[in-house]
Write a structure and sequence with these properties.
Elements: H1 16-35, H2 42-49, H3 53-60, H4 63-77, H5 87-103, H6 105-118, H7 122-149, H8 158-176, H9 182-197
Helix pairs in contact: 1-2, 1-4, 1-6, 2-3, 4-7, 5-7, 5-8, 5-9, 6-7, 7-8, 8-9
């Protein structure tokens, strides 16, 4: 997984519809950062974005609909996986991008707000799953390349390995509330890679 642009909807040109969407998504992200998911108000988002309430209700329907579109846009803005030529370099690049994202004041607050919302709102949970599924699928490709180069055992599950790299970082972020440091990110890579080389992520066949 990696770091998308800090502000959703700010880099895509287009006509009036695209501009309205960009303004609404930026207003949604602002509100999430400032007040969290449960304080999202469709009327306030419309006012922040400078668009009509009817437009916001018609296109997004609910606060969860706004969050879903926001997470889709953040996923769209995320860069492709790295290709350093080796699995250690690729996993380190992944971990450091996650580190940068969750320590960024705007992006980190956005993720924390949506993660918190996902514990009690199924639409928010679905948006979060979709975002991370797309990023995990993208980065799993570096594991497939490593298997082809003979760096990892055949059958290594790329998605599970990518999850194992970032999971300790998110645990620090949202569970123990510890600082998420570069040292923690690189240590997570070392542990996950050692396990992968030992065959811990080889998918079982039935």
């Amino acid at each position: 997984m990696d770091r998308p642009s800090r502000s959703a909807g700010t880099v895509r040109p287009g006509g009036r519809t695209a501009r309205v969407r960009a303004a609404v998504l930026e207003a949604t992200q602002d509100a999430l950062v400032e007040h969290g998911f449960h304080a999202l108000s469709m009327d306030q988002i419309a006012a922040r974005a400078g668009v009509g309430k009817t437009t916001v209700y018609r296109r997004w329907g609910t606060p969860a609909g706004l969050v879903t579109d926001l997470m889709n846009e953040l996923a769209n803005q995320s860069a492709p996986h790295s290709d350093t030529g080796g699995i250690e370099g690729d996993l380190r690049a992944n971990a450091l991008m996650v580190l940068e994202a969750i320590n960024d004041p705007r992006l980190g607050a956005t993720f924390q707000a949506v993660i918190a919302a996902a514990t009690g709102d199924e639409e928010a949970a679905r948006a979060l799953r979709t975002f991370y599924r797309r990023r995990i699928d993208e980065w799993a490709a570096v594991v497939d390349l490593a298997v082809a180069r003979g760096e990892l055992p055949p059958g290594t599950d790329g998605k599970e390995l990518i999850k194992a790299v970032s999971a300790p970082l998110y645990y620090r972020l949202v569970v123990t509330r510890e600082p998420v440091t570069r040292e923690a990110a690189l240590a997570s890579v070392d542990r996950a890679l050692a396990a992968a080389r030992a065959g811990a992520f080889v998918a079982e066949t039935v």
